[in-house]
Amino acid sequence: MALGFGFGVDVGGSGIKGAPVDLTRGAFATERVRHRTPQPATPEAVCDVVARVLDEAGVPEGRFGMTLPAVVLQGVVRTAANIDDAWIGTDVVALVAERTGRQVTVVNDADAAGLAEARYGAARGVAGTVLVLTLGTGIGSALLRDGRLVPNTELGHLELHGHVAETRASGAVREREELTWEQWAERLSAYLQHVDRLLWPDLVLLGGGVSRKSEKWLHLVDARPPLRTTELLNDAGVIGAALLAAEADERA
Predict the structure, then answer these.
(1) Mean pLDDT calculated for residue range 151-156
(2) What pLDDT was estimated at residue 209?
(3) Concatenated DSSP letters for 13-45?
(4) Who contacts 129 (Cβ-Cβ below 8 Å, separation ≥6)?
(5) 5-111+235-251, which class in CATH?
(6) SS3 state at 202
(7) Which of 6, 147, 180, 190 is most buried per CB count within 10 Å?
(8) Selection from 62, 73, 51, 78 nearest residue 6 by Cα
(9) Hey, what CATH class is 125-230 in?
(10) Which phi-psi region, left, alpha or beta, contains residue 239 (left: φ > 0; alpha: ψ -120 to 50)?
(11) pLDDT for 2
């Protein structure tokens, strides 16, 4: 059954953005609304900005989708990355309902992006195991099997040469340590080889800001599985969140 339209909100460390999504095409139906993430990014402060985004976008009452840079289990936040530690243990579904007056489906941000790529983007129609990695401030991961999401994998936190992987191979690390593309590709290769030994994916999609410059580094990466860059870029989180919310409504 066609899902029509949905609304997604993507909560990031620097910005909170939302847009109505045409779920037939997997694209924004109108321009997005964006506001800066409040500092500190406490649950109450973030949810107030989310409510502002919804109101300014003219979203009707009903369910919407929302991402967080966190593990979310049964609507409760279990980790916090680039948002305030006060999120840990928060029943985000109840808090959003209180602050916005709407139902919400909450999902890890990388999971939302990965699902959007599987449904509309670079992994569309790909059978088997697909791993989507977002190489940004950290390394987000989404694992899909035949297009079905295995949530909350957090593969950026694997150990790599005695370090947390995302502290060695994220996009932000490349900039912070002023690594050449060759140096960074060597680290990324080591990480991908490590993940490959665990999961043996049929395809790996690489996203994040560095994906826009893939001509500088993708050919330098040494990995067994086929590598592609993501197609939906920064829109993927909003699109995936809207899709999950619409599917939740279909099941209700």
Answers:
(1) 95
(2) 87
(3) SSEEEEEEEETTTTEESS--EEEEPPSS--HHH
(4) 143, 144, 145, 199, 200, 201, 202, 203
(5) alpha beta
(6) coil
(7) 6
(8) 62
(9) alpha beta
(10) alpha
(11) 52
